[in-house]
Write the structure tokens for this entry.
Amino acid sequence: MKRAYIRSTLFNLCFYVIVAIMCCVMLPTLVLPRKAFYFTIYTFLYTVGFLERNVLGLHYEVRGQEYLPKDGSYILAAKHQSAYETMKLHILFKDPSVILKRELLRIPLWGIYLKKSGPIAIDRSSPDAAIASIQDGARRIKEEGRPIIIFPQGTRVNTDATTTEKPYKVGVARIQEATDLPIIPMALNTGMFWPRNSWFKSSGTVIFEFLPPIEPGLSREELLKKLEETIEPASISLMNEAREKQSKTKHGLKSAILSVLAVFTIMFAAYSALWFYVADEIKRQYPLALADLMEPNVQPQTPVITGFPGKIRMAVDQERLVTPVANIDVQTIRAHGWPIPNSPITLTTGPITARSNRWDDPLEFDSLMAVVNTDGQILNVDESELVYEDAMAALKGTLDLKQEPVPAPDMVITLKNHKSILDKLVSNQILDQRTASFTEGALMFFVNQEGDVEVPLTQKERTVMLGPIPLIVIPNKIEEAPRRRPIPLETLQNPSGASLSGSDTPQDPSP
């Protein structure tokens, strides 16, 4: 069969994206009734069917439906050539129960969905256990009035495989013995269009053909022989029919191009809608996020959004933020990232200046860079760099945004040339010399082989800790947090309120 290489690639890319999305969408249905679960199943199947028709150019036809019982349970014994027929079972039959290996139920996440669909899982720990699990499951499904689906050869087979290589197994006979139900054979030619373990597929029309039922009463050997003599010739005939149709059909290049353009247009329209929705949300959320950090009667700037159809790029010339510690001026704020949930966002700034009425001189940094993403209310900092002259501080870890007014950190700080940073803090009288010396001595325990300091930044109860050093006590309520006024120096040095020297009197900040 001629393979549709471009169509197959486009279809497969769309298919795996939809599978990933549906695996997440279906999670809540695991705790809901089966009707809700099946609603998502049918949504997935019909979406894939749309892609099959309009991208891959693959259709299907059903023959012999008059042989299917109008209601009640029955056994369907089907040829199995590809994954295509497994996706059509819930379209062709009403709430079927498929016989499968119990090991499939152990596949992470996917196995849970399989179990929710109500299959008959075979326990293959021993022959007796396998027979018992098949027959007990079949009796249960019969009582529920659902079709029982079995692939008599037990696995997918290539289109050129013989029954000598892949014989019909006795399981189908065991099921009929346990349930006394008729067996409806089903022939197909799916392997001609959707080959086993192949990326490339073919356009055309798959045919499912139901054949006259086999009533109970035959011996196991007679039943297996009749199934083989019924299904195999019919499947071979359908495969030959597919070859003949393809040899007579000329696939027009125009039709293929139109199909590709249609799919591209739909995908681009959906992406564009998402892009502009996220851009509008950034414009709306940015001022809200900074509202509590602005001076009275001062509004945050409205960010400029550019970049379509590539990454969303946000730009703000400058902002002044008011914190309990200092007023911070940030120049040239830039951020960019793809409009996809949980994708990383890269933030960069120009110079940053922090001022406080308790400091002689402002504290100035050259730039800030951070790569972050959010997982619910957890902010993940994948990498960051705050640069000051020949020194640099890097943060990596998580911030729990659920805690207010200050997120709970679980991070690691890496300091390069930390002596330079401490000297600057002393010269600005942010730290006194004694505290700086104590801090430098404590940080020496965290120096790595490269000579950099690596120290954890964590929270213990309400106290933020830099390694063993307490930094600040987090207030229990937002109202307790001081606004637009620096935290007293002694609080930064020791949250308990006592100075590091053990005296109750604050130390002279001079060296």
